[in-house]
Amino acid sequence: MAPSRPPPSPPAPTPRGGGGPRRAPAPRRAVTVFPVLVVLAGAAGLALPGTFAAYGTDVPYLLGVVMFCMGLTMSLDDFKGVARRPWVVLLGLAAHYVIMPGLGWLIAHLLHLSPALAAGVILVGCAPSGTASNVVTYLARGDVALSVSVATVSTVLAPLLTPPLTLLLAGQYLPVDAGSMVTDILKTVLLPVVAGLVVRLLAGRLVDRVLGAMPWLSSLAIAAIVAVVVAGSAHALKSAALTVLLAVVIHNGCGLALGYGCGRLSRLGRPASRAMAFEVGMQNSGLAASLATAHFSPLAALPAAVFSVWHNISGALVAAWMARRTNAPAGAAGQ
User: Fold this and answer.
1) Spans of biased composition, class Pro residues (predicted)?
2) Phi-psi region for residue 20, left (φ > 0), alpha (ψ -120 to 50) or beta?
3) What does CATH list as the number for 21-322?
4) SS3 track for the chain
5) How far apart are the first and last CA of the chain?
6) Tens place of pLDDT for every residue, the chain, 335 residues?
7) Radius of gyration of the chain from Cα atoms?
8) 8 Å CB contact between 4 and 15
9) Do the Cβ atoms of 226 and 309 come closer than 8 Å?
10) Closest by CA position to 6, among listed 64, 70, 67, 79
11) Cβ contact 302:233 at 8 Å
């Protein structure tokens, strides 16, 4: 999940949340600092489980803050972008909701995960795109407009897609109340996003003045979620940590590779394929953690907490590598 999103401003997109080129470093700094902040939050939750575990019921509200910040960074242009290239956005959406849920189920099977961890990994896969994918696509010199469009549509459709996919793939491990999950996603994701978008439309100038703070507010909220989730499963963390990390690294890495490959096989070009990589491989782990805590157990939320850290680290590294390949002399390497 992510701190901020860049806008599709061709031909040279500038990060959303920063207001333009001069303030572009804000979301980049947030993406860079975010993993460190989340690691520190996780360490705090592990060291003081009694302090943070008591706030388990506040996780949905913290997620609501993140999604409201996302709504503030959105505009009607995001939806116009969908209309301009509907089939490409549909391809990205299909790739996201097929590849990541399928990978989650396969990894849970191959690693013989416990029911709680298996359900948690699958739930991460069934979540919509993480908003960090847009900033990372920008840093990778990918197709930001496509990234924003796919992330927007996957978030809007999450109430319709995430619960049934979770029921289908994770129902064999733990009971899944898909109807209740739909309601929770509507309340914690769609409603805050719409509210943020409405505020942006009604008070655009005022919102523009504070957009630079949105990445940091989102980062703090996600860090708080991770601290609470880790605290709730602190007793089982020592035995499950390596297994969860392995599952997350495989899940994220395969998602990035398959997303990029899907774009290349569809002949979308390198910028669009880079966007596909991040839209498939990076997840709204905050939503997954919230749903796992509410519907399964704190242990089931652990994969989402680890994913929240790892996908930002891997995304930043892959984006830096792609950007360097763009700057490389012609014929030096093709990706």
Assistant:
1) 1-14
2) left
3) 1.20.1530.20
4) CCCCCCCCCCCCCCCCCCCCHHHCHHHHHHHHHHHHHHHHHHHHHHHCHHHHHHHHHHHHHHHHHHHHHHHHCCCHHHHHHHHHCHHHHHHHHHHHHHHHHHHHHHHHHHCCCCHHHHHHHHHHHHCCECCHHHHHHHHCCCCHHHHHHHHHHHHHCHHHHHHHHHHHHHCCCCCCCHHHHHHHHHHHHHHHHHHHHHHHHHCHHHHHHHHHHHHHHHHHHHHHHHHHHHHHCHHHHHHHHHHHHHHHHHHHHHHHHHHHHHHHHCCCCHHHHHHHHHHHHCECHHHHHHHHHHHCCCHHHHHHHHHHHHHHHHHHHHHHHHHHHHHCCCCCCCC
5) 26
6) 545 555 444 433 434 433 333 344 555 665 667 778 888 888 888 888 888 888 888 888 888 888 888 888 777 777 777 788 889 999 999 999 999 999 999 999 999 999 999 999 999 999 999 877 888 888 888 898 898 889 989 999 999 999 999 999 999 999 999 999 999 999 988 899 899 889 988 987 888 888 778 777 887 888 888 888 888 877 777 778 889 999 999 999 999 999 999 999 999 889 999 999 999 999 998 899 899 988 998 889 999 988 988 888 888 889 888 988 776 554 444 44
7) 18
8) yes
9) yes
10) 70
11) yes
Reported residue count of the chain is 335
